[in-house]
Amino acid sequence: TQLLEQSPQFLSIQEGENLTVYCNSSSVFSSLQWYRQEPGEGPVLLVTVVTGGEVKKLKRLTFQFGDARKDSSLHITAAQPGDTGLYLCAGGRNFGNEKLTFGTGTRLTIIP
Amino acid sequence: NAGVMQNPRHLVRRRGQEARLRCSPMKGHSHVYWYRQLPEEGLKFMVYLQKENIIDESGMPKERFSAEFPKEGPSILRIQQVVRGDSAAYFCASSLPGQGAIGSNNEQFFGPGTRLTVL
């Protein structure tokens, strides 16, 4: 079974600080997605990365896919209370329609 | 363009009853996936369907669970003779048809989920 381990599991920081969330695996993935999930709602797709070493930016969020396509990171600059939520990474293996393997999740709380 | 729709949003069943969860994919999407999220756990894949075909059911429990995606109408996840351990949030996702090539990753978009509570 492929496992995606996320760290930290919980993170609580002050508004304005920077943070990084990690998603690690011993397996290679063809693509990796990051989702954010609010309580009582479904995951919302933030980004997809497919190339080793790829970096994508979404406003204050920076996503990186490891060179070996086994790990990824999410960096948030100047965190805001609206960033609070559960962040999930999910990996795919076949460049197309397939099941996703989800990470263990990072629950982020930004304190105003 | 409406997103993935799921109903009901909340479902309460007594042990031994049947639960039917419905999912309407995004317009133009012909691929549907079901995932289950147990309390304080991550999402686990259950089944992947195309119209009238089950493509991958490797995450589906062997007994009591079934899924379909008919030519017309929503995809349905059916749980027979529910037990307390079935209590969870069930999410449906949909995607466009894939091409299986680098750069053609077909992203999955999730619905709001159905929260099943078994009493």
Characterization of the model:
The complex is a heterodimer of chains A (112) and B (119). In chain A, strands 2, 4, 5, 9, 10 and 11 form a six-stranded mixed beta sheet that branches. In chain A, strands 1-3-8-7-6 form a five-stranded antiparallel beta sheet, with no helix packed on it. In chain A, a hairpin with a 5-residue loop joins strand 7 and strand 8 (71-76). Chain A is 0% helix and 52% strand. The model of chain A has no long low-confidence stretch (mean pLDDT 92). Chain A is mostly beta strands. Chain B is mainly beta and 119 residues long. Chain B is built from no helices and eleven strands. In chain B, the strands form two sheets. In chain B, strands 2, 4, 5, 6, 9, 10 and 11 form a seven-stranded mixed beta sheet that branches. A four-stranded antiparallel beta sheet of chain B has the order 1-3-8-7, with no helix packed on it. In chain B, strand 7 and strand 8 form a beta hairpin. The model of chain B has no long low-confidence stretch (mean pLDDT 90).
Number of helices of chain A: 0
C-alpha Rg of chain B (nearest Å):
14 Å
The largest pleated sheet of chain B is described as: 7 strands, mixed
Q: For the record, give the distance between the C-alpha atoms at the N and C termini of chain B, rounded to a whole number.
A: 37 Å
Overall outline of chain A? globular
Please trace the helix and strand order of chain A, writing H or E for each element: EEEEEEEEEEE
**Regions with little confidence, pLDDT below 50 for 5+ residues of chain B:** none
Q: Overall pLDDT of chain A, averaged? A: 92
Q: Note the beta-strand portion of chain B.
A: over 45%
Looking at how many chains there are and whether they match, the oligomeric state comes to heterodimer
Strand and helix map with partners:
The complex is a heterodimer of chains A (112) and B (119).
Chain A (H helix, E strand, L loop, with lengths): L4 E3 L2 E5 L4 E6 L6 E7 L6 E6 L5 E4 L2 E5 L5 E6 L8 E8 L8 E2 L3 E6 L1
Chain B lengths: L4 E3 L2 E4 L5 E6 L6 E7 L5 E8 L2 E4 L8 E4 L6 E5 L8 E8 L13 E2 L3 E5 L1
Parallel strand pairs in B: 2-11
Antiparallel strand pairs in B: 1-3, 3-8, 4-5, 4-9, 5-6, 7-8, 9-10, 9-11
